[in-house]
Design a protein that fits this description.
Layout lengths: L4 E11 L1 E3 L2 E3 L2 E9 L2 E4 L4 E3 L2 E3 L1 E6 L3 E2 L4 E2 L3 E12 L5 E3 L4 E4 L5 E3 L2 E3 L3 E2 L3 E2 L6 E4 L39 E3 L1 H4 L7 H13 L5 H4 L11 E3 L20 E3 L2 H8 L29
Parallel strand pairs: 4-12, 5-13, 6-14, 7-15, 11-18, 18-19, 20-21
Antiparallel strand pairs: 1-4, 1-11, 2-3, 8-11, 9-10, 16-17
Length: 287
């Protein structure tokens, strides 16, 4: 890495750490910008700009290959994960003169975190095991909502290119939007409450309290309109949902907005067409 100047602003990382027998929770909020950074790692096949993985390891055979960005020997993911939250719109900036050169045959690339999803071949996706990434999305009117009007798009867009080409989509990272203004009981609409509930259900046990420290159920508002919200399907096994609400989904509107090209677009539409967004075989798993 050359000509590296990094400033930190506008994001918060919360991760459970162990120091001896005492649990400590470092919490940090600061702006981040990468100015004139050059990354040359031509053997790296898995790359995360801010984090490689948002999971801890309860066993590592010291076989991590730093050139490739992967563990070549056996390891086990612990049940602890990270709550990673960008808090300020445009608080994470990467200048145009930042260059990233990794393996031409790379597998996964992400400007935030390469891996936030835990997957088990025997149990598929599992709630209570996942890391959470939250990103601010703001409309022209200053509302913390996603566009789903087919005219505008305000989801996160890659700020770098793969030597001029578009980066492949990373199906191992799930982006929630605006959890910082919905979490801990601050949600005022049925849609926002549903996002808070689903994110907490999806999250690893050690970070659930950062979403809401109380026991929350699926909302019972008469109308739950998910237009503008990043609501994802979750495993509801064991949940007792008592809602008789009228629920409005707007996935089609989201897909239409993702197709919009704008001045900040990376020209990759993160649509969810044809699948529920929980299958890693779906290259459009992320929004």
């Amino acid at each position: 890495m050359q000509r590296c100047r990094v400033r930190e602003e506008g994001f918060r990382i919360v991760n459970l750490c162990l120091r001896g027998r005492k649990k400590t929770v470092p919490e940090e909020e600061a702006p981040v910008s990468f100015d004139g950074v050059t990354v040359k790692a031509t053997k790296c096949i898995n790359f995360g700009m801010l984090a490689s993985t948002l999971f801890g390891r309860d066993y590592d055979s010291y076989g991590f290959d730093y050139f490739k960005g992967e563990n070549v020997n056996n390891y086990r993911s612990s049940r602890d994960a990270t709550y990673f939250e960008l808090t300020k719109p445009n608080g994470y900036k990467i200048s145009q003169d930042t260059k990233i050169n990794i393996s031409p045959s790379y597998s996964y690339f992400d400007e935030i975190a390469r891996c936030s999803i835990y997957y088990s071949s025997s149990a598929s996706f599992m709630s209570n095991r996942q890391a959470i990434i939250s990103i601010p999305a703001v409309t022209a009117d200053g509302e913390r909502l996603l566009y789903m009007d087919g005219k505008n798009c305000n989801t996160y867009q890659n700020q770098t290119t793969n030597n001029g080409a578009v980066w492949k989509n990373n199906s191992w990272a799930r982006y929630y939007y605006n959890l910082d203004v919905y979490k801990n009981g601050k949600a005022t609409t049925g849609g926002a409450k549903a996002v808070e509930w689903s994110a907490k259900l999806f999250a690893a046990n050690n970070i659930k309290a950062y979403i809401n420290s109380t026991n929350i159920d699926f909302p019972t508002d008469p109308e739950i309109d998910l237009t503008g919200y990043s609501f994802y399907p979750v495993d509801t096994n064991g949940c007792n949902i008592k809602s008789n609400s009228t629920i409005t989904f707007e996935n089609n509107g989201f897909n239409q907005s993702e197709m919009v090209s704008s001045s900040n677009s990376d020209n990759y539409a993160r649509t969810t067409e044809g699948m529920d967004g929980t299958n890693l075989n779906n290259v459009h798993n992320q929004h």
